[in-house]
Specification:
The structure is a single chain. By secondary structure, this protein is an alpha/beta fold. It is 31% helix and 30% strand. The protein is globular and about 35 Å long. The model has no long low-confidence stretch (mean pLDDT 92).
Length: 89
């Protein structure tokens, strides 16, 4: 299983990551639809977002970074799931 993680830093940028590690995928799936600094999150959701943002993502190079990559077309194969999450600035 491979996950395409779309990490939005609203309103500044968007980064795309490919996650393959099963444990990291579980955390990413728990973060889907949730954003750091948004209201109404449970303690578990906040903890998962913090772990994803501070521990998992720094270990990965973004496949795409809107602040650096411009409008390049990206081709990715083998993605089984898409997760959208991020950070509200």
């Amino acid at each position: 299983m491979s996950v395409l993680l779309i990490y939005e830093e609203i309103p500044a940028s968007t980064k795309l990551y490919i996650i393959n590690d099963p444990i990291e995928i579980k955390v990413a799936l728990r973060c889907h639809g949730n954003y750091v600094n948004s209201s109404g999150l449970t303690e578990e959701q906040e903890a998962n977002l913090e772990y994803l943002t501070n521990d998992i993502l720094p270990k990965h190079n973004p496949l795409f970074d809107s602040e650096k990559s411009g409008d390049n077309i990206i081709e990715v194969q083998g993605i089984t799931t898409i997760v959208v999450t991020g950070f509200l600035l």
